[in-house]
Amino acid sequence: MKLPVRLVLAACLIGSGVAKAAGNDPATLASIRDTAMKSDWAYERLADMTDLIGPRLSGSPGAAAAVNQVADAMRKLGATVTLQPTKVPHWVRGEEKAELVDYDGRPNGVTQKIVLTALGGSGATPDAGLKAPVMVVNSMDELNARAAEVKGRIVLIDVPFDQAMADNGLAGNAYGRGSAVRFAGPPKAASLGAAAVLVRSIGGANFRLPHTGVTGLVDGARIPAAAVTVEDALLIKRLMARGPVTMHLTLTPKMLPDADSFNVIADFPGTDMADEFVLVTGHLDSWDLATGAHDDGGGIISAMSVIDTLKKLNLKPRRTIRVIAWMNEENGGKGSEAYEAANKGKMDKQFAAIESDNGVGRPLGITTSVPAANYKLLQPLQAALGQFDAGVMRRQDSLPTGDLSGLEEHGVPIFTPIVDTTTYFHYHHTPADTLDKVNPDTLHRLTALMGTLTWYLANMDKPIGRVAPPVK
Ligand SMILES: [Zn+2]
């Protein structure tokens, strides 16, 4: 029996695995969503990363193992993998303990334990610790105003996290306020001669968990710096209201010579516009206190899952999809600097860049810095994301992202998922950022968003434009 030509062709296509001709039509976008929603690939890879490796701070054995694990996973999907070298800071946490050894009303023989954790880049106390009087300030302004009192003291900069902002969709703003103090406070206190510096942990759930994070301390002026739990900051303040407080503080971190590390770059080649790249990214390093399941395990895994989804559907993008697992977002940004340096002069080929780095909360939509004039080109994308209640779309002239700011300054439009961050800062940079906090259904939704967004950008007919350089 002679088959109609169309059927023969279809049979050949299925048999030979040749890609279907598909673009940004609603049916293709829906198939990406449905495939991602059903796939356990991302959760399994996230379990591999967090359970088999764990913490992945730059320079650590965990970070090196994660580079290999991601490279292997992407090679298994048929992507072309490149390890892009970069030198990274190598800071290692040591012993960390503190107690209040004197305060008004202290019964004989009693001391009060203070729960804290060293901040990234902290200097060390002597091995036996140091004893110094504590002073508390409530803002950077107060630190500046009381500069003359700082010398020889342990300064607590006590700025509360605004959970009400987080409850109203502004967790990033609340974090920005706290992290600015965590970054700038320690070097300022160091310059004023402080014996050590403490900040109140930046987070909204007060379960006596310390939240680490990077400081702006530099070589030659690395004083001991730590984050205390909210409960302990409050205790110190109450005791200070009774009279002078003395702390015994021991922190023994080390800043080792810069280490060799890598970004993992995995290319899934395009068809007729293969020399243009859509970057879909997350960061591979994590803080050392936990396994970085939300920050940023879920982000990088959801970026990697885009290739898994397209492979399952046998879809070939027009532009090359480039998955990047950035190294050293948390305490240096050396991975993104290495990529920019390697792509100088090729920025016009970076069509758009995506980074997921706000945890695995329920996806609600996307924020982008595409030029206002081209915003309407994203309407079909918005409709597709709306099919799974992730259709909120926001545009800003520039986005605050950990790894993509440099690309954006070179004109590359940036995209980032909007996710529910109400509880993200409960776990962020604490010992509790672990796999059990990640809801598999929510990770499915994030992989659906990343897949749909990446595919859409990789198959747009028209250029999406360039971001205007920042006004200086
Ligand atoms: Zn992060």
Describe the 3D structure.
- The protein is α/β, with parallel strands linked by helices.
- The chain has 14 helices and 16 strands.
- Strands 1-10-12-11-13-16-14-15 form an 8-stranded mixed beta sheet, sandwiched between helices.
- A hairpin with an 8-residue loop joins β2 (96-103) and β3.
- α2 crosses α9 and α9 crosses α14 (440-458).
- The longest helix has 21 residues, at 171-191.
- It is elongated.
- The N and C termini lie far apart (73 Å).
- The model is unreliable at 1-19 (pLDDT under 50).
- Bound molecules: zinc ion.
- Residues 283, 295-296, 329, 357, 402 line the site of zinc ion.
Sheet-strand content, in percent, reads 15-25%
> Approximately how much helix is present in the residues?
25-40%
Quote the average pLDDT.
95
**Tally of individual helices:** 14
Main-sheet strand order equals: 1-10-12-11-13-16-14-15
What binds here, in terms of ligands, is: zinc ion
Major β-sheet annotation: 8 strands, mixed
The strand count comes to: 16
The succession of helices and strands, N to C, reads HHHHEEEEEHEHHEEHEEEHEHEEHEHEHH
Structural category: alpha/beta
Show unreliable segments: 1-19
Keywords:
alpha/beta, binds zinc ion, 472 residues
Task: Describe the secondary-structure layout.
Layout lengths: L4 H12 L9 H13 L2 H13 L7 H16 L3 E13 L3 E8 L8 E3 L1 E3 L11 E8 L2 H6 L8 E4 L5 H5 L3 H21 L4 E5 L24 E4 L1 H13 L2 E7 L2 E15 L4 E11 L9 H21 L5 E8 L7 H9 L7 E6 L7 E6 L10 H8 L5 E4 L9 H5 L4 E6 L4 H4 L12 H19 L14
Parallel strand pairs: 5-6, 6-7, 7-8, 11-12, 11-13, 13-16, 14-15
Antiparallel strand pairs: 1-10, 2-3, 2-9, 4-8, 5-9, 10-12, 14-16
Helix pairs in contact: 2-9, 2-14, 3-4, 3-9, 9-14
The structure holds zinc ion.
